[in-house]
């Protein structure tokens, strides 16, 4: 059976380290602030935003949550971002994705001051990080990388397959692994012989949003599997069950190590958001 990669415990320890650093900033009269903007009523986003606000306060930072109605105009959203860009009590700004259809996500992301872009979605940060500079690294890929390095140590030369090519996870994940000297393949819905590609990978990262798509038979024996998916499956009992993009029961029989869902990548994403906010605060107070 595969070893379990305990993201929940790793994230708790990371949050402890962050809280210690924040306490040192308090002594200098600095309290890092994170502003989170949620537009609309998406149920999953509401849960994420609530957890982000709660954990921000737990590490000693200020949390500013802006919940805006679905009908909010792009102009009003841009005005709020402009206000937060100029607010000295805010060092990090995050606009929860997805946004309603009448709002252009690229325009919104471009409006965030790159120094306050704790998601690492602004083109300036994407560019810096892709060229090996110190641009902010998106939270979910950063969390996956931390778990991988904790599990495997040096990743040099490993054959990595990233399944999914979103701007939030897949693309930055591939870039990060390339920076770690992996041999990286990015696979997606048009990839030919997908199962074969997966079976070649020493490291398999799955971020496609399809419940239990990757089966144990797709996995190379001994591989390290990072499951980014969080899918709610409604059950007959009326209770929802959370599953990943990997079929855990069959994968755990083949993999060397695997992240569970829940308790794997999920908690790492918020911990890395807090880390990015701390880093942004340190840079802005330099
Ligand atoms: N929606 C899903 N994941 C994320 C994330 O990491 N950041 C933001 N802003 N929205 C998301």
UniProtKB/TrEMBL annotation:
Keywords: Amino-acid biosynthesis, Histidine biosynthesis, Hydrolase, Methionine biosynthesis, Multifunctional enzyme, NADP, One-carbon metabolism, Oxidoreductase, Purine biosynthesis. GO terms for molecular function: methenyltetrahydrofolate cyclohydrolase activity; methylenetetrahydrofolate dehydrogenase (NADP+) activity. Transmembrane segments: none annotated. GO terms for cellular component: cytosol. GO terms for biological process: L-histidine biosynthetic process; methionine biosynthetic process; purine nucleotide biosynthetic process; tetrahydrofolate interconversion. NADP(+) binds at residues 164-166, 230. Residues 138-284 form the Tetrahydrofolate dehydrogenase/cyclohydrolase NAD(P)-binding domain. Its EC number is 1.5.1.5, 3.5.4.9. It catalyses: (6R)-5,10-methenyltetrahydrofolate + H2O = (6R)-10-formyltetrahydrofolate + H(+); (6R)-5,10-methylene-5,6,7,8-tetrahydrofolate + NADP(+) = (6R)-5,10-methenyltetrahydrofolate + NADPH. InterPro entries: Aminoacid_DH-like_N_sf (IPR046346), NAD(P)-bd_dom_sf (IPR036291), THF_DH/CycHdrlase (IPR000672), THF_DH/CycHdrlase_cat_dom (IPR020630), THF_DH/CycHdrlase_CS (IPR020867), THF_DH/CycHdrlase_NAD-bd_dom (IPR020631). Residues 5-119 form the Tetrahydrofolate dehydrogenase/cyclohydrolase catalytic domain. Pathway: One-carbon metabolism; tetrahydrofolate interconversion. HAMAP family: THF_DHG_CYH. Catalyzes the oxidation of 5,10-methylenetetrahydrofolate to 5,10-methenyltetrahydrofolate and then the hydrolysis of 5,10-methenyltetrahydrofolate to 10-formyltetrahydrofolate. Belongs to the tetrahydrofolate dehydrogenase/cyclohydrolase family. Homodimer. This is Bifunctional protein FolD. It comes from Amphritea balenae. The gene is folD.
